[in-house]
Amino acid sequence: MSIYADNAATTKISKNALEVMNKTAENCYGNPSSVHSHGQMASSMLYKARTVIGTLVGASLPEEIVFTSGGSESNTQAIMTGAAYGEKYGKTKIISSSFEHHSVLNALESLKRRGFEIVFIDPDRNGIVQPQALEDAIDENTALVTIMTANNEIGTLQPISALAKIAHSKSALFHTDAVQAIGHVPFSAKEFNVDMMSASAHKFHGPKGVGILYVKAGLKATQVIYGGHQENNSRPGTENLPGIAAMAAALKDSVLSMQKNYEYISSLRKKLTEELLTIPNTLLNGDTDNRVPGIMNFVFEGIEGEALLLMLDSRDISVSSGSACTAGSLDPSHVLKSIGLPEDLTHGSIRISLSEDNTEEEVDIIAKAIKECVTKLRDMSETWQEIQSGIRKSEIE
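The chain above was modelled as a monomer; its predicted structure follows.
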């Protein structure tokens, strides 16, 4: 049996989304910017998708939705929009959290080279960015606060509404990377009062290579791509209409099934967590309950996470050792370091991310396989032998 448990990296495209994508590509192939009938048919479908997605994410107007190539582009454009706002009003400070996705961290690094002051606040040990930490860091010189809704490695949810309120108290813009949250937990741009939000279709059973940037009415998104006048002069380039239509279909299905899927996936996560925590010297990273339903990150002391990942892969079980964007890196996870995990432990972590496609039988197989693999790896681990003999102190309390 082949088991896929790396849904935080990407989800399988749904049958409905695939059907919509293929049908749109076949029957609605005009350029939405063209004035002839084929173009106007495409333009009408584009507007319909924009309206559906806008409604589902809590936008006030369809025009607040900008279509992009995915989460990384959306995050980059949001941050550059915040920088332009800062330059306009003489604000040179940007605040973020230390466990953001690398698309955020690298965009901020580029702004640091341009002279912006970049301040990172750490989440607490449970993987939550506390509002007080932002209160302590923010001032009148702050142009932008960008903090993710759900962490991509440990799955913890952040108090976005409270954080946005603090940002606005200093007339700063607030952006959230909601890539791991949209379609999995309730989100409303209007209710949370965010200025910008990023999402990506392939995280909720849509196609890869298409995403959105929500930009609140009255705020003009700064271009990071140059070309024509598409997307209300916010994002040049002919729109990927088949992908956008499929994204709208996938998001609608995800939102309509959200409560049912949340309960089901949460039950699988809790079952697997209980099983894995019976393994000695094992730690679940992040808050036990305040998280998206499917993402969990475990540390097994005395072993390397990469070795465990490969051993599981040999059993046809797909998990990851962290973010898909850092696969192949031997550096310890910046997410686990940010929550205060000792470096030795960060190397022994794996991320398991479930979806509604997983079954209880698969969870049982995953638990059994991990228990067996951890035992084998520990039998070969000098570090584990030293912990067992008392030469080395365990770092898991």
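Residues 72 and 103 are 5 Å apart (CA to CA).
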